[in-house]
Automatic annotation (TrEMBL):
It comes from the Bacteria. Pfam families: Lactamase_B. Residues 88-261 form the Metallo-beta-lactamase domain. This is MBL fold metallo-hydrolase. SMART domains: Lactamase_B. InterPro entries: Metallo-B-lactamas, NDM-1-like, RibonucZ/Hydroxyglut_hydro, TAT_signal.
Length: 362
């Protein structure tokens, strides 16, 4: 059946939209695999999927607009603020009277960043010249395309971003020329952008990028709108700081959230649902610490303490995650994929950061 035939058989606009997005996703597999460090050896059609587990369907609400033949989608957030996605990663840019301000440069979007900017600039008769790049945080998966814009742009980031990039010494991520410590308001081409470092969260340097005149907050790698966090609570380095971040995000006035990931923008409701998801998992891990009996694991494994601990914590994690997976399946995409690994990270944080469940020897 051809793509056109199958499109004809899809009734509702939602079905069609999700089908388009899925087709785009399938085509984007090699790019995403490459971002994960993989070498793509097979075409999707000929790949052997025997033995791979099934997961619950992705709710259509998790999917965004279809990407174009080049593999990207560019859309207006509000007025002259735009966002670009490849379906998995997101960047943003402001067109101004003095040129373009780019926010992050994920390598998976790569050269499509300039293509998206060219498309918008030519449609609106404004400059397509990137003059500034603002960094959300130092991670290579969000900045690895920065070098494509050469040495004549001004790069702006947190002072810790600069320190971490000096450490990483990666030519694809030139260090920021301009840094700040707590807050900095940028005035570029008549536009206002408020940067703030409000404590550590996903990384020590992850910042809040607020567009007060565009009703938008860019906060990367905290809430991935429509989806549960990536493996192990998004690999967040500061777990309590990351748990607190959604409340900080919601304390700002905004309508649109650019989360840095997946195929669509976020809303305040998305942020609140994500906040509740984490809160529900925290309730679960605290209950698991109180209610899961360690005795059988230590009785079985004797001197092999790691075996006992592993199986005991696996039982605690499952105890915490199962009801949350049930509640959020159909609400957040991939609840059945990554909730257990996030529950484990939250369990360890509750135990080690908060000291819940630790007992002092009599
Ligand atoms: Zn990151």
């Amino acid at each position: 059946m051809s793509v056109l035939d199958s499109l004809g058989s899809l009734g509702s606009p939602t079905d069609r939209r999700s089908f388009l997005a899925r087709s785009a996703k399938a085509a984007a597999v090699p790019a995403l695999a490459a971002a994960l460090g993989g070498s793509v050896l097979a075409q999707p059609a000929s790949a052997d999927t025997t033995g791979l587990p099934d997961y619950a369907p992705i709710p259509p609400s998790a999917l965004g607009p279809a990407v174009n033949a080049q593999g990207y989608y560019v859309g207006r957030v509000e007025r002259n603020l735009y966002w670009v996605t490849d379906g998995t990663y997101q960047a943003a840019f402001l067109t101004t009277s003095d040129g373009v301000v780019l926010f992050d440069a994920p390598p998976t979007i790569g050269h499509n960043l300039q293509r998206a900017i060219d498309e918008v600039a030519s449609a609106n008769g404004v400059s397509n010249q990137v003059t500034h790049i603002v960094y959300s945080h130092h991670h290579a998966d969000h900045l690895g395309g920065s070098f494509l814009f050469g040495n004549d742009v001004e790069r702006i980031g947190h002072v810790e971003t600069r320190a971490l990039l000096l450490r990483d010494n990666d030519p694809s991520r030139p260090v920021p020329d301009t840094t700040f410590t707590d807050r900095k308001t940028l005035h570029i081409g008549g536009e206002r952008i408020e940067l703030a470092h409000l404590g550590t969260n996903h990384t020590p340097d992850n910042i809040y990028i607020h567009f007060p005149d565009h009703g938008t907050l860019m906060l990367v790698d905290i809430n991935l709108p429509g989806w549960v966090p990536f493996d192990s609570f998004n690999l967040n380095e500061d777990v309590p700081g990351s748990i607190a971040a959604p409340a900080t995000a919601l304390s700002y006035p905004w309508t649109h959230h650019i989360g840095g990931h997946m195929g669509r923008l976020g809303t305040r409701e998305d942020m609140a649902i994500y906040q509740q998801y984490v809160a529900d998992l925290l309730v679960g891990v605290k209950a698991a610490l109180a209610n899961v009996d360690p005795t059988p694991y230590f009785a079985k494994y004797g001197d092999n303490e790691w075996a006992a601990v592993k199986e005991y914590q696996a039982a605690q994690t499952k105890y915490a995650a199962d009801p949350v997976i049930k509640k959020y399946t159909g609400v957040l995409a991939a609840a059945d994929v990554y909730t257990e690994s996030t529950a484990f990270v939250l369990l360890e944080s509750v135990r080690l950061d908060l000291g819940i469940g630790s007992q002092v020897h009599a």
